[in-house]
């Protein structure tokens, strides 16, 4: 029988000061931030632990952490053409606090001068203002309200000392996440009628960084848990699986790198003055390839990303779409973009991750508008012609949204108004009428795409060719 994972059994007696406050306890933060801090502790003099603030109201007493904050992160995949398999025992998490049941313990953390970094992952919708958070004295529901309460208590405790300001590194997958968080904090400060000295302290002595995170963290590897636990010698109920690839791009001032010395540990963290090109690169190449590939592959009977990329025709489509049509529209150096593309293809091939195309299909119209359509329009603007592969993916997407393909039901999951509009449009008497109706819908695309020269004609041709 395997030993339970805890500090006594694992012979872990490391005592470090808490330097990171983490809002969120999900798989991504454990397989990304907590893993990174652990590497930092091992390879630099950072010497800091993480205190986790549970993000949601549990509705029950917090269960004891029988593992003392310990867990393993297992990395499996391909990097530089080589299969990678690595398991790390994470010792960087010191404690988890439920702010709803342990509000005093939560607010006590404001007194710790060692805390300099605050990280979070409250989901894409987490950085938002809730009208229900109107009472400063009660535990807040929203993440930004909790942060505002915490900062207010820190401001009071240290009497506005500028040296205790915090560096915020939000991991939420929204553009300008740091700016958005700061905006929400200031809004709560206004609603709660907190003094101008406090808002001045927030603006002048706290740093809200915009960041971009990238790593697929699949969570508890149920099918391989017994094998992986046997390899470590412990029964680990919090085991987390992830891909080897990761990247954290932080738009920041130099001081952040001094507080978070990731470069010294050889971590893939980039500090940049402008995050936008990196955000565009990820959205257009990684996310764009996913979205463009999905319908092409699904209509061919393929069901996972790995199956798709191992299909010679789909692989050729993805390669041509990325190298010949997406990369020429992006502002970063071609060499850097092609290296990123190489990494994307390797990630698609990861034999340890089963990424279902049906999950990528969720809300594909809005995804296509953000991830693929800009590449089509910018390519046409630069080259004077439409990109062959990306237009074909547009046609395949519309066929996918028809709802059935060769007698099989397609897993269309979207806003019902969007899905219904496209289904009804397929009742038009000709493919041209259908395409014109789709392209003229400004609500779907943000503009009238019938004005894009030749797009309608090309889509009609592609749809009829695929349907033949």
Which whole number gives the mean pLDDT? 94
Distance between the termini: 60 Å
Number of discrete helical segments? 20
- The proportion of strand residues reads 15-25%
Number of E-type strands:
17
- Spans with pLDDT under 50 lasting ≥5 residues? none
| Rg calc | 25 Å
For the report, how would you describe the main beta sheet?
6 strands, parallel
In the sheet with the most strands, the strands line up as 6-3-2-7-8-9
Structural class: alpha/beta
What is the 3D shape?
globular
The helix content, as a percent range, equals 40-55%
Could you describe the 3D structure shown?
This protein is α/β, with parallel strands linked by helices. Helix content is 46%, strand content 15%. The chain is built from 20 helices and 17 strands. The strands form 5 sheets. The chain has a 6-stranded parallel beta sheet with strand order 6-3-2-7-8-9. Strands 5-4-13-11 form a 4-stranded mixed beta sheet. Helix 9 (276-299) runs antiparallel to helix 11 (312-326), helix 9 (276-299) packs across helix 16 and helix 18 (431-439) packs across helix 20 (455-467). The longest helix has 24 residues, at 276-299. The protein is globular. The mean pLDDT is 94.
């Amino acid at each position: 029988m395997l030993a339970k994972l805890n500090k006594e059994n694992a012979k872990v007696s490391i005592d470090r000061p808490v330097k990171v406050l983490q809002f969120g306890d999900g798989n991504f933060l454990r397989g990304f931030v907590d893993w990174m801090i652990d590497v930092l502790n091992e390879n630099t003099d950072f010497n800091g632990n993480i205190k986790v603030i549970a993000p949601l109201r549990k509705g029950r007493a917090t269960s004891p952490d029988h593992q003392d904050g310990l867990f393993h992160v297992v990395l499996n995949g391909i990097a530089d053409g080589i299969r990678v398999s690595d398991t790390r025992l994470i010792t960087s998490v010191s404690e988890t606090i439920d702010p709803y049941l342990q509000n005093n313990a939560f607010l006590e953390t404001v007194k710790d001068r060692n805390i300099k970094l605050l990280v979070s992952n409250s989901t894409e919708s987490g950085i938002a203002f809730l009208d229900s958070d109107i009472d400063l004295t009660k535990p807040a529901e929203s993440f930004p309200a909790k942060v505002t309460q915490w900062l207010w208590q820190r401001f009071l405790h240290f009497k506005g000392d500028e040296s205790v300001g915090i560096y915020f590194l939000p991991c939420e997958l929204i553009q300008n996440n740091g700016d958005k968080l700061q905006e929400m904090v200031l809004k709560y400060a206004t609603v709660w009628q907190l003094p101008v000295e406090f808002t001045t302290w927030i603006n002048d002595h706290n740093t809200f960084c915009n960041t971009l995170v990238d790593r697929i963290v699949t969570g508890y590897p149920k099918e391989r848990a017994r094998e992986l636990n046997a390899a470590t010698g412990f029964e680990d109920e919090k085991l987390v699986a992830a891909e080897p690839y990761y990247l954290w791009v932080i738009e920041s001032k130099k001081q952040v790198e001094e507080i978070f010395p990731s470069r010294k540990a050889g971590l893939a963290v980039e500090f940049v003055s402008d995050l936008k090109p990196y955000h565009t690169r990820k959205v257009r190449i990684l996310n764009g390839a996913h979205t463009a590939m999905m319908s092409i592959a699904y209509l061919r009977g393929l069901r996972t990303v790995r199956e798709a990329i191992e299909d010679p025709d789909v692989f050729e489509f993805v390669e041509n779409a990325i190298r010949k049509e997406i990369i020429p529209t992006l502002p970063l150096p071609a060499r850097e973009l092609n290296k990123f593309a190489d990494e994307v293809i390797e990630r698609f091939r990861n034999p340890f991750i089963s990424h279902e195309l049906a999950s990528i299909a969720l809300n594909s119209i809005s995804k296509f508008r953000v991830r693929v359509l800009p590449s089509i329009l910018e390519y046409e603007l630069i080259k004077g012609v439409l990109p062959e592969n990306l237009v074909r993916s547009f046609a395949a997407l519309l066929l996918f949204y028809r709802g059935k393909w060769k007698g099989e039901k397609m897993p269309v999951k979207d806003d019902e108004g969007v899905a219904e509009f496209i289904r009804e449009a397929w009742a038009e008497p000709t493919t041209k009428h259908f395409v014109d109706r789709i392209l003229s819908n400004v609500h779907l695309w943000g503009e009238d795409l019938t004005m894009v020269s030749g797009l309608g004609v090309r889509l009609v041709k592609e749809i009829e060719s695929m349907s033949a």
